[in-house]
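Q: I have 460 residues here and want to know how they pack in 3D. Can you give me a structure?
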Amino acid sequence: MLFFTVSYFVFFFCTITCFYLAPVKVRIPLLLAASYFFYMSWNWKFAPLLLTLTTIDYLAAIWIEQSRHRRWALVVSLASNLGFLAIFKYYNFAASNIAALLGLPHQRFYFDIVLPLGISFHTFQSISYVVDVYRGQQKAIRKPLDYALYIAFFPQLVAGPIVRARDFFRDLYDWHAPSSEDIKRGGFLVALGLAKKVALADNFALVSDRYFGSVASQPGGAAAWGAVFAFAMQIFFDFSGYTDMAIGFARLLGFHFPVNFRQPYLAVSMTDFWRRWHISLSSWLRDYLYIPLGGNRHGKLQTYRNLMITMLLGGLWHGANWNFVIWGGYHGLLLSLERLLGQAKHRERTWTFFDVPRAVLTFVLVCTGWVFFRAGSVHDAALVISRMAQIPRGQWPIEPALMMLTGTGLVVALVEERVPLLEAVERAPSWVAASCLGMLLFVVELFGVDANIPFVYFQF
C-alpha cells in the first residue's frame, strides 16, 4: 500500500478508528497487528524476517543489561542485523564484482534475491536501540509487544524517518490523545506530503525518467541540466513528501516524529546541506559511525579519513551499486575540503540575500552528485556530467507551469527560514487550517499525476 493510494487511506481510517474506540490495553496489540498487516501487504514472506530480527534485538538488549558478557550480546545483535542486510542487499553486488575479478560472467554467482521492504531503515533503527542500551543511554524494553511496535510501526517502517528509541517510547509510555493543534498539524502534513508527491515529485519524475532511461539518445546541455534539475526536485519532493505524511499520520495517532528535512536546497555549504537533508540518517551516521571512528578528535587527517569512511558507507547504504559508492565518496570529499578550507562551521544565523551565491554553488554541487545517484551506470553518469559541462543549448525539458509551481515552493522555503509555518498552522483558527488544507488538495487535483510512481526511497 502506497501512502497516496485509496487503499492506504481506507486502511488508515480503519486503523485510527479502531485505535480510538478500543480499550487502552488493546491499543498496542492493535497498532502492532495493523503494522504487520501493512508490511505483509507488500510481501508476507518477509514478516518472519522482521519478527526474527525484532526478537534477537529485544533479547540482546535485555542480555546487555543483565549479563557481564555485554559485548557478546552487542556482537550478536550487530552481526544479525548487518548479516541479514549484507545477504539481502549486498550479496549479488559483491558476487558480481568477484566474478568480474575472476574473469567470469557477472551472473556466475548470482542468486535471485528479493530485497525486503524497508530493511535498511528498520535495521538501523534496531542497531541504534541496542547500541544505546549498551552505552547506558536507553533502558532495555521489557515488554516484547512494545519493542515490536517500535520496530514495525507502519508510518515510518518503510522509509523512515529513523526514530530513536527514547523518542518513541517517551510518546508510547506517556501517551496523550492528540490536541487540536496536533490534529491540525497532522492533517496539514498529510495533505502537504500528498501534494509534494503527486503534484511535484511525480511530474518531475516523468522528465528525469525519460532522460535517464535513454541518456545516449538525448544530447545537449539543456536536456542534461533539465533532467538533473528534475531529479533533484523529484527526490526532494518525493522523500520529504513521504516524511511529511509519515510524521502527519503518526501525529494523528499521538506520536511525534522528528523533522527530517529543513529546506536543504537553501544550504550554503555541503556541511549545511547534511544538517538539513535526511536529518535522521545523517545524525545516525554521525552518532553511530563517525564519532565511534574517532570523529574529529585525533587530528585533521584522521578527521578526513573518518568523513570519507562515513560517507562511503552512507552511499553504500543507499544501494549495492558503484554509483552510490561514488556518490558517497563525492560527498565525503566535499565535506573534507570544506573542513580543510575552514568552511564547515555550524551556521546559526538566519538565511539572507547575501547567501544566494553560496546557496547556488552548493545546489550545483549537490545536483552534480545526484547524477551518480540517478544514472543507471557509471558510464551514463560520466556522459551526463560531460554534457552538463557544455553550453546549455537546446530546449528546456520542464514545463513552465511546473517551474512556476517550484518557484512558489522556493518562496515558501524562504519564508519558512524565518517564520515557522507549521507552528503558524497549529495556532491558526480552524477555518485558516481548513483553507490551507483545501488549497493543497486543490493543487493535488490540478497537478496530480495518475502514474502510481513508487516513492524513491522504497528501494533502499
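Q: Anything worth noting?
A: The radius of gyration is 23 Å. DSSP finds 19 helices and no strands in the chain.
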